[in-house]
Design goal:
Elements (H helix, E strand, L loop, with lengths): L2 H18 L3 H27 L5 H12 L13 H34 L11
Helix pairs in contact: 2-3, 2-4
Length: 125
Amino acid sequence: GSIAGYLAQQTEKRLKRKLKQYSKASRAAMSVFVLFVFATLGGLILKYVGQENWSTNEAIYFAIVTMATVGLGDYAPVTTAWQKLSAILFIWLSIILLAVLFGFISAEAESELLGDEATPRLGAS
């Protein structure tokens, strides 16, 4: 009966229609592609913002290790404050992106194991 519930139901209907257009393999490939692009762009931005003396491979390696929240410490932004701020922003965005993608994966696995009716709805209380 609430506006939020109605909006959640409408959003869920639209998402289900969109998701049915794509196969599971194409959705998985798109997720991997998004992660790859985000890591590549993040690494290159971090490389050029602070003008670290990193090769492109080292910058992308740093981005992937940072995205995975491993943080080995062999590369770290130390040159400028802008690079440090960029790294912090990149970490936040990486965690959000990974959380969303893992949420999609877990929802897909749950609906596969339990059936579509067992998957929680956005507006359900």
